[in-house]
Amino acid sequence: MSEWYMEYEIEVNRPGLLGEISSLLGLLRVNIVTINGVDQGRRGMLLRTENDDAIERFELIASTMDMINVRKLRHPKLRDVLAVRHGRYIQRDADDKKTFRFVRDELGILVDFMAEIFKQEGHKLIGVRGMPRVGKTESVVAASVSANKKWIFLSSTMLRQTVRSQLAGDEFSADNVFILDGIVTRKASDERHMQLVREIMRLPAIKVVEHPDMFVRLSEYTMDDFDYIIEIRRDEDEEITYEILEKNDRMSSRSGMDFGFNI
């Protein structure tokens, strides 16, 4: 069976409209999997059918109806699935289509979004931008749990500063989610750490880089290598700047409170 996403705008809202649409789809042997409002005045449906011709017939019939205006009818994209599941579309950058924006209050849909990416097979490089304590690492870990994936920190400051120089056993599995902090990796002096990062980058697995802009500054990688960029803010107006992050890092190093260790 093939899956479809339909989104329609309600032109004339009257009682029984949804029932009529559902009945028409039923007559065409098109099953409604999920339905939800996805925007003001719009509904989204995930559909399933054994005959794609039925979708074409529905589109033709719907074009003659004055009550609705079908805006989208296509095989579902990830954003479509999440829109129906959560009742709205996630925010996408108008200029950079691979950049998605969230605020801290939307961590639930963010975790769901990343979990769906993590379930995909093969290489995926994801960058996560955000100021300290906005929920970057926590969201990645929660998404890994939701996707039933084991997560491996290559570098991190979640509990204490960690810089891995080697992995062991099943830690090299392509089924894992590999997480690194771009700032910590950038300042790491251990060449073995960078060699490990290169090995993981060649692995057909999910890689998540926090602070990707800092990561690419002193590495052979560029922002073009990233498949997704996720930005997390406390509110929509918060500016993501690395000046504060670098200042905090220098103060931490001078105060001797780093407690970093290599593994």
UniProtKB/TrEMBL annotation:
TM regions (residue ranges): none
Domain of life: Bacteria
Alphabetized InterPro entries for the sequence: ACT-like_dom_sf, DUF3388, UCP021288_ACT
Positions of the DUF3388 domain: 70-253
Entry protein name: DUF3388 domain-containing protein
Source organism: Bhargavaea changchunensis
